Fold:
Amino acid sequence: MIRFALFAAVVLFTAQAPAQESKSEYKPTPWHLVDIWWDIGQDSSFESYSIDVDISYDVPSTKNLYISPIGLGHLSNVPFYGGIQTQSNGLTKQDRQLRKLGHGLIFSMWGQRSLDAVRPSVGGFCQSAGNEGDFVSVRRPYEWKKGKYTYKIVKMDKEEVEGQPATWVGAFVYSHEKDENVFIGALRFKGENLALARKVGSFVEVYGPRIPVTEIPKVTVTFGNLKVNGKPVKPTSAEAIYPKKVPDYAGVVAKDGTLVVTVGKPVENRKERKVRLIGK
Structure:
């Protein structure tokens, strides 16, 4: 879909003399440093989906880094994504002035612009925009630090909209260190019996104004422990894809069923842009 459309082979990046890098060498931000595709084996009747993410270092809000455990998923063909940002923004239904929120959590759905389809948390924020395609989103400020989190979406209550069934889906982030479950907000999906598609993505992204590649944050992000409807699933495969015309400043390895992403270190002379990490 929109954020994963540029998976392809790419010209090689050389990390020599970064101060001299050409602005035409890379596409404009956002830069997906790596996109990961998990294959959970089959489409599933949806009640919940969750994935763990472990972040090795504190990343300041002066760095625009988006760690997305659910980089792209589909519920009955409706694309959605969500994750953790160093600098999020949002508005309220009462005050449409967009404001910076600092560290925050996000859950978004494509193909929708109406704020009737969003349910922010108490004290939370939302967004509706069309700059990357129509989407709506719920956002919540949250001072996350290094540590382990579980990002989870859950089927909630049902509603009838213009005579057609709809289902609210809520997003939560659980902090293992704090033993704290944080409600981000909920989005309204069309349909009653939602199905989760077998291919689910994750990504790490640099967004906002362009920065020198040497300023990309140095951090290790580990994704793993996927669960569908509360039950662990073993992915039949997982691939890392390094998109074209972005800095080669991320690498992924498989370790004990998880995928470990090292961000902020240059990878020279990368030859493969699509790497199978789990499965044949």
Remarks:
- The chain has one domain: 32-91+101-278.
- The longest strand covers residues 147-161.
